[in-house]
What we know:
CATH class of the largest domain: Alpha Beta
Radius of gyration: 17 Å
Strand content: 15-25%
Number of helices: 9
Strand order of the largest sheet: 3-2-1-4-5-6-7
CATH superfamily of the largest domain: NAD(P)-binding Rossmann-like Domain
Oligomer: single chain
Number of strands: 7
CATH topology of the largest domain: Rossmann fold
Largest sheet: 7 strands, parallel
Shape: globular
Structural class: alpha/beta
Amino acid sequence: MTNRVAFVTGGAQGIGKGISKTLGAGGFRVAVADLNLAAAEETAADITAAGGTAIAVLVDVTDTASVQAAVKTVTEQLGPVEIAVNNAGWDDFMKFLDTSEAFWDRVLDINFKGALRVTQAVVPGMIGRGWGRVINIGSDAGRVGSSLEAVYSGAKGGIIAFTKTLAREVATKGITANTVCPGPTDTPALRKFADNAGQDAEKVIAGMTRNVPMKRLAQPSDVAAAVAFFASDATDYITGQTLSVSGGLTMA
Length: 252
């Protein structure tokens, strides 16, 4: 158990909700940071009802001022951010040649630069206190590629490389930086993709499931378990690592 402060972006829904609730159950004080404040308030209330400590915080990771304001709010209400979980993300599925530069900018601004903004906002304080955890949510798309996700795959590949470099730069400061890469995860976003695939959604999900050696999709709680591991005090000597949570779909 711990009472350290965790700042989870995109923490209100899907994988982020699983991370927030798992950390809350583990004794972390959780800032559920999300663009959807109503959903963040609901998730924070769930954590509190289960005996944990959580607050909802509005954040737009594409806006530096919004990130800084959110970190300030968390610091005032819970304490300094000790664990940063960069989970906020967005994508749409299409062939690369059908994408536009505006689409590239949006994918990179949310999935890559969003993590940069949060990291730059919280790591100086971690250095000053001599302890911190940066946990970036990548994707197996960033390790092996993913059809119809060229730009997203590039952004997540960038997250993996950024995390390794950050880990080197802060290795002597009591701070670790690691990446968790989910494989196909049963979330509302995945269900929406399946619904929009132009065929029976259940067949799409079944096809994904068949490709996983464990024959099931990940649950948000599966990804959250890896995040909780990296967030713990027991991982002082683990940094710069990339961990897939994919039921064996990716073994690299």
